[in-house]
Design a protein that fits this description.
The complex is a heterodimer.
Chain A (H helix, E strand, L loop, with lengths): L2 H16 L2 H28 L6 H31 L3 H5 L5 H31 L10 H26 L4 H4 L2 H5 L14 H8 L2 H13 L6 H32 L12
Chain B lengths: L9 E10 L2 E11 L4 E5 L6 H8 L7 E6 L2 E2 L4 H6 L1 E5 L10 H11 L5 H11 L15 H13 L5 E5 L7 H16 L4 E5 L3 H7 L2 E6 L2 E6 L4 H4 L5 H18 L1
Parallel strand pairs in B: 3-8, 3-9, 6-7, 7-8
Antiparallel strand pairs in B: 1-2, 1-4, 4-5, 9-10
Classes of the chains: A mainly alpha, B alpha/beta.
């Protein structure tokens, strides 16, 4: 792994963000919009529900943790989309850059952008609605780790799909977190779901995080065994996503699709 | 006893590429020696860009072998491509990065030593210094071509692939660019594979030309003597003859 090549991917994104408020703005704006939406909703629910239960860490906290996963996924896909939009795949893949270096670069870039989102999230949610992530105690670290790994896995798989199907497949990518959220038990216990959906939820790493969030809010201990399972699943999905990207990369090189990327040939 | 000839910088052996029933490149073999500029000529669809794409590692051959600077492209793609660079009209650099940012980005990918100094030299050599802070997307096509060439020189490549490098620049700038590349090649460090439809340019810069037709090399030789050897007045006439034969063969088949 060549550090200079990995850094090049990160530096390119830094160049783009530095000179482009329209790229920086979405990192923060959706987080703030979500905090406002879920913050006021939890405030309302607190006012009409039985005394003693706070919806803030359960609902607002869950919404923000899910937002974190979404930001991570988008943080991984954005550098790839930059190459799509500038038709740069030919220039990139005709260099000594290895697939592992390219992926390491986009993941490193995602760490930067998702951490920026997380900081804004923590500060604004505390200031506006009194949500403190300290409520989750030491379990916050595995929560964030599982969500980060899952977000990266989704981002890498999404990037591979765009590389395989062409620029127009971009619209398939943005709703992915929204499509997964009903099965991940973000806002309700997994036990609420029908049996067969619970089986799906069990295989989704974030479901173990959100079960953990609810356990802590209810005053129980963090389910460390489930968090370990979630972490293991997320690592397995990340490995699978990287293999999928590698497979797609080899496919586009074998078929010549990378040299004619805008043609969107799927055969 | 004459000294042994230096090993080829590019060695292509029985290279083929098929797309389903179409044989785009069919058993092509050739070499490029250090200090040599080889022209790859042929009508549209002859297989020139397919050949270049395979040498650049962005298209996997169906069969055959490519060696760059003694490194097998299939065995160690990264090491082989570290010795290579290219400029092509169909591969513009990202328009949303400035000239300097583009050179820095690609310079880091090629892990160029003393990158800042190298960028300054190339900005001066390709008359791009005044555009260093300008986004590549707003440059004229000629300026973009110069930027692509500057990027192609970043890593002092042993093998330079130029696909119609002067297609969109004025004759005066094209002459300067040809002279610059010829000077770089004269050092004996680098070999060039050059495609162009400008036969005057090919005759001026190439030491040897390969005519491709239907994915095969049908003619090979010195561009200054090849036309007369085949009963044509000029290289342009020879090109037209080969292209017409291609069309006739296509119609017959």
């Amino acid at each position: 792994m060549n550090g200079s090549r990995v850094s090049a991917v990160v530096l390119r994104l830094f160049f783009l963000y530095r000179g482009s408020p329209q790229r920086v703005f979405p990192i923060f704006v959706w987080v703030i919009v979500d905090i406002l939406l879920w913050g006021f909703l939890t405030r309302y629910l607190n006012s009409v529900s039985r005394a003693g239960f706070s919806f803030v860490p359960a609902l607002l906290g869950a919404a923000l943790l899910w937002d974190f996963l979404t930001r991570v996924m988008q943080g991984v896909t954005m550098p790839v989309f930059e190459d799509v939009w500038t038709r740069n795949f030919l220039n990139i893949f005709a260099t000594p850059m290895r697939v592992s270096e390219y992926l390491a670069g986009v993941i490193a870039a995602a760490i930067g952008t998702s951490l920026a989102s997380l900081v804004v999230m923590l500060v604004f949610a505390k200031a506006a609605f009194g949500l403190s992530f300290q409520t989750y105690g030491i379990a916050l670290a595995p929560f964030l780790m599982v969500l980060f790994l899952t977000g990266v896995a989704l981002g890498v798989a999404a990037a591979a799909t765009v590389l395989r199907l062409g620029p127009a497949s971009e619209w398939l990518i943005w709703p992915i977190p929204m499509l997964i959220s009903p099965f991940a038990g973000v806002f309700y216990p997994v036990s609420t779901l029908p049996g067969w959906v619970q089986a799906i939820a069990f295989l989704l790493p974030p479901s173990h995080v959100f079960e953990g969030v609810r356990a802590i809010v209810a005053g129980r201990a963090a389910p460390w065994d489930r968090l370990a399972l979630g972490c293991g699943l997320a690592l397995a999905y990340l490995a699978a996503a990287c293999l999928y990207f590698l497979w797609v990369y080899r496919y586009v090189i074998r078929t010549g699709l990378v040299a004619r990327y805008s043609a969107e040939t799927v055969s | 006893m004459s000294p042994p000839s230096p090993p080829a910088i590019l060695s292509v052996e029985r290279l083929s590429k098929s797309f389903e029933d179409l044989k785009a490149v069919d058993g092509v073999s050739f070499e490029v020696a250090p200090g040599e500029i080889v022209g790859l000529l042929g009508p549209n669809g002859a297989g020139k860009t397919t050949t270049i794409s395979m040498i650049l590692g962005v298209l996997e051959p169906t069969a055959g072998r490519i060696e760059i600077g003694g490194v097998d492209l299939r065995q160690d793609r990264s090491a082989a491509l570290a010795r290579t660079n290219f400029a092509a009209v169909y591969a513009p650099l990202p328009g949303n990065l400035t000239v300097e940012q583009n050179l820095r980005f690609f310079g880091m990918i090629y892990a160029v030593d003393n990158l800042g100094e190298r960028i300054e030299r190339l900005l001066a050599a390709y008359d791009l210094a005044r555009f260093r802070g300008t986004k590549a997307g707003v440059l004229s096509s000629g300026e973009q071509t110069r930027l692509s060439l500057a990027k192609a020189m970043l890593n002092r490549p042993r093998l330079l692939l130029l696909d119609e490098p002067t297609a969109s620049i004025d004759p005066s700038a094209a002459r300067d660019i040809r002279a610059g590349i010829a000077k770089f090649v004269d050092s004996g460090h680098c070999g060039v594979l050059w495609t162009s439809h400008n036969m005057f340019e090919v005759e001026a810069v190439c030491d040897r030309v390969l005519f491709l037709s239907h994915g095969r090399i049908v003619l090979e030789g010195d561009p200054k003597t090849l036309p007369h050897e085949h009963g044509a007045e000029t290289l342009d006439d020879l090109f037209v003859t080969v292209a017409h034969e291609t069309l006739r063969e296509q119609s017959a088949s």
